[in-house]
Amino acid sequence: MLHGLGAVYLREMRILKRRFKRHIVGMAISPLLYLVAFGTAMGTEARFDGHTYLEFLLPGLVAMTSMTQSFSTSTEINIARFYLHIFEEFQSAPISNVAYVLGEVLSGMTRALIGIVLILGLGAAFGVILHTGPWFWLAAALNAFAFSSLAVLLAMIVRSHGDQALLNAFVITPMAFLGGTFFPLDRLPEWAQNILYALPLTHAAQAIRGDVFGRPVVWAHFAVLVAVGAVVFIIALKSVGRARD
Amino acid sequence: MIVIENLRKQYGAFTALDGVSLRVAPGELFAYLGPNGAGKSTTIKILTGLTRLSGGSATLGGADIQTDPIAAKRQCGVVMQHINLDSDLTLVENMDIHGRLFGMSAADRVARTEELLGYVDLYDRKEKLVSTLSGGMKRRLMIARALMHNPSILFLDEPTVGLDAEIRRRIWGLIKKIQNAGTTIFLTTHYIEEAEFLADRVAFLDEGRLRALDTPLALMHRVGAWAFDRLTEDGMKTEYFPDRDSAQAAVTLDAGGHTLRRVNLEDAFLTLTGKTVV
Ligand SMILES: Nc1ncnc2c1ncn2[C@@H]1O[C@H](COP(=O)(O)OP(=O)(O)O)[C@@H](O)[C@H]1O
Ligand SMILES: [Mg+2]
C-alpha cells in the first residue's frame, strides 16, 4: 500500500538538493530580519514570560518556520500540477493515495526540520542556545505533519497558481503573525486569546516554548496538534481523487 | 487488450465523450483520429487515471479502470500531448523516479534507463538537466520514460504535434519499432498521414462520438478508390470513383484546374464525418 512513497519523497528531495543554497538563503532572510529588528529593538531589559525577548522569540520562530516550511509543499505541488504537469506521473502510476500523500508530507516535514535547524543556528549566532528536548521535537514534528497535510489538501483543491497565492495571504501569513510567535498571548483580552487558541500554530508555539523554558508538559497542546493533523491528513487523502478532473 | 464500453465524459454541462465503444487487440497499433476538441486526450486521460469517467466502463488487459485502477495502471505507459517532465532533474533522475513508481528494482532501473536512453538516442545527455533539451528530445525522453516499466499498452497522445517533418519521421520509426516488440499502441493524432502511415486500424472521432472504425484501407474503400478534384465557381469539389477508368472519364468532361488522384484517408474522414481534420 505504501509502495511509491519513496519515489514521491525522493523526487522532492532531489529538487530541494538542486537548489539547496538558494533555498537556505531564502529561508534565512525573514527570521534573520525578525531577530535583528525585534531582538535588538527590545533589548535585554524587557521580560517576556520571564525571559529576554530573543529567548521568547526564538521558539516562536521555530514553530512559525516549521509551519511555513512544511506548508511550502503546497507551492511545490502546484508547480508540479500546473506548470510542469509532472503530477500526471503520480496519477498514472500504480500507487495508492496514501503513498502519494505520505511521500509529500514527509518531504514537508523534512523541509521543516531543515528550517528548524537553521533557526537554532541563527539563534546560536545571536547568543541564544535553546534547550531542545523530546517534547520540543515532538511538537515541531506534529506541527509540520499537520501543515504538510494541509498543504497537500489545499494543493489538490486549488485550480491555479493564483488560488495558491490567496491561500498563503489569507491563511498562513495571518497565522504566522498571530499564532503566539511574536508576543505572549496572556497580554491579550480573553476573547482574542480564545480565537488564537483555535489556531493549531498557537498550540505548537506554546508546546515548543514550554519545552524550551523547562515548563511542565501541557497535554492539551499535543492533543490538539494530533487531532488537527489526523483530520487534515484524512481529508488530504480524499482530496487526491478530486484533482482528477 | 483495451475494451471501452459506452464511455461518457461530462465537463459540467459540456459532453466531451458521448458513448464511445471500441476494442483494441493485443499488439495492435490503433489510431484515434479527430480534430482538436474531439475528445482524444479526454479518452486517454480517463484510461490512464488522470480523469474520472462520467459513464460507461473500460478495462485494460482485463483490469477495470474503476474497480482495479492499480492493476490497470501497472500495464500502461503514457506519453501525454504536452511535455510533463521534471525540468530541474536529469534525464536519468526522471527515468529513475518513474521506475521507482512502478516498483522496479535498482538493478532493473539502471539497466533499463541505459537501454532506453540509447534506444531514443539520448544516451549522451543522460546526466544533463531536462531543461537543456529541445522539444523533440523531450518528446523522445517521454517515450523512453513511458517504456521504462515495460508496459504492455502504450498510450501516445499526439506524439509528433509541433515537431518538424524529419523528427516526426524519426518518431514514427520509433513507434513502429515499439509495436514490433509486441506492445499494444493506442495513438491519437490529428495528422491524417500519421494515422495512414502507422495504424492497423483507425477510429474517426468527432465531437465525442465515433463516426467510423476500420483499417485505413477499408475506410478509404468506403469512399472509393480514385478521387477527382475540380475547381469550380464555389471552390474545390471532389468526386469519388470506384476505379481509374470511371474517374478518367470524368476528367475529359472538364478542361479547368483539376487533379486525378488515389483516395486517401482524408477523403474518408471528410466524407464520413462531413468535416476536415485540421
Ligand atoms: N478540464 C476540462 N474542463 C472543461 N472542458 C474540457 C476540459 N478538458 C477538455 N475539455 C473540453 O473537452 C473537449 C475535448 O477535449 P480533448 O479531449 O482535449 O480534445 P482533443 O484531445 O481531441 O483535442 C474540448 O472541447 C475541450 O475544450
Ligand atoms: Mg488532445
Plain-language structure description:
The complex is a heterodimer of chains A (245) and B (278). Chain A contains 11 helices and no strands. Chain A is mainly α and 245 residues long. Chain A has one domain (2-244). Chain A is globular, with a radius of gyration of 18 Å. The two termini of chain A are 24 Å apart. With 278 residues, chain B is an alpha/beta fold. In chain B, the strands form 3 sheets. Chain B has a 6-stranded mixed β-sheet, with helices on both faces. Chain B has a 4-stranded antiparallel β-sheet with strand order 2-1-4-5. A 3-stranded antiparallel β-sheet of chain B has the order 12-11-13. The chains are: A mainly alpha (245), B alpha/beta (278). Chains A and B meet through α1 and α5 of A and α2 and α3 of B. Bound molecules: adenosine-5'-diphosphate and magnesium ion (MG). Adenosine-5'-diphosphate binds at residues 11, 14, 16, 34, 36-42 of chain B.
Outline of the structure:
The complex is a heterodimer of chains A (245) and B (278). Chain A is built from 11 helices and no strands. Chain A is an all-alpha fold.
